[in-house]
Amino acid sequence: MEIAKQKSKDVVNLTEGSVAKGILAFAVPIFWGQLLQQFYNMVDAWVIGNYADNASFAAVSSAGNLIFLIVGFFNGIAVGGGVVISKYFGAKDEEHVEYAIHTNFLFGILASIVSTIVGVLLVPTILRWMGTPDNVLPQSLAYFRIYFGGVSTVIMYNICMSIMQAVGDSRHPLYYLIFSSIINMILDMILVAGFHTGVTGAAAATVLSQGISVALCVFRMCRGKDRAKLDFKKLRIHPDIIREVISQGIPTGVQNSVISIGNIVIQSNINSFGEYAMSGIGAYSRIEGIVFLPIMSMSMALPTFISQNLGARKYDRAKKGALFGIASGVIIAELIGLVIFFGISPLLRIFVNAPEAIAFGKIHARTVSLFFCILSFSHCAAGVIRGCGKSVVPMIGMLLSWCALRIIYVTVALKIIPEFRMIACAYPITWSVTTVIFSIFLLKTDWTHSFER
Length: 453
Description:
mainly alpha
């Protein structure tokens, strides 16, 4: 593995050349990959919304927070593993890059086993705790049983993707997602539209198609001769590496899971307004998940850019990358917010036809969309902070605001003003708090030398 010498048109060198061009060249394939991930969910939602009943659509639409509660923890650790690999890659430490790759991959296998067990056992209890309506509960249970039965495909894809991206290859995960997304669409049309299998068909299509993307990633890593080389004979947990991965990844994993708890509390309040509220917010979530992808892709590219350049001791370059990433993310986000504010009604109709559901989705969208610039700042700043190895900072900031404050606000606000709009107001309020916390950290600390302390 000759890191210093190898070059590939599929790998972006983030430690040399134009900062803006380097970040964008790396972020664009991530954007397309994330778009295809959303496409999985969007196709499921569209097919269910058009070929099944509203209760089935509500079941699939409300699945995201519960899935992220369990899967998000391990995906957060995968992010930490990517930071560790990027740091050693930037420092041209070939031995530790190899150790980190194999440690991360084996961890993914173990995490898949745990997630399957936890998901299958806990989901029924959590769904009831969330106050899922009785007419939606059977479809939700059916969907989650299949999804968590094959959740290893989701986790292992994220592990493989984080390894490839850490060494500058954001293209191959994209290629494999393109293929598997086509398979997902075909399976959805056959199982749900053709055989009318409802939520079970949608879940099976997602798991099977995601499994194909994992198989392609593993084949590439095993057969390839590039920087993300995988050899099953070398799979082992290296104590020093796993300590680094855990120290970097646990905060992000805990953050993901605990924030999901906050979002589940929010979802339970949405559920109390009935199935049309669930459908309307579910449809809005699909839209937001797509239109906000440019910002999420930037926030995902920044940790790799920052960690590689700090590993290479290019501190000024890391600062320039942070400024470019945050500023461009904020500008793009506000433009997106304006489009959503004025054009939300026809977008919602892509997924739902019920006027009652559209009304709920419109209320939420017009409450939050003009504050997308604040949300973008939080995500991009968190990406910079994770890239410098201080993932505990975004964890604390988001736990305090996106979880604790959000739960307290909604609980109190709905008792004072029991209107649906009060739920939506929780989001810009809590986004603002994290913006203040992350701004203070970036402006008041020497974050560029974090790896050396």
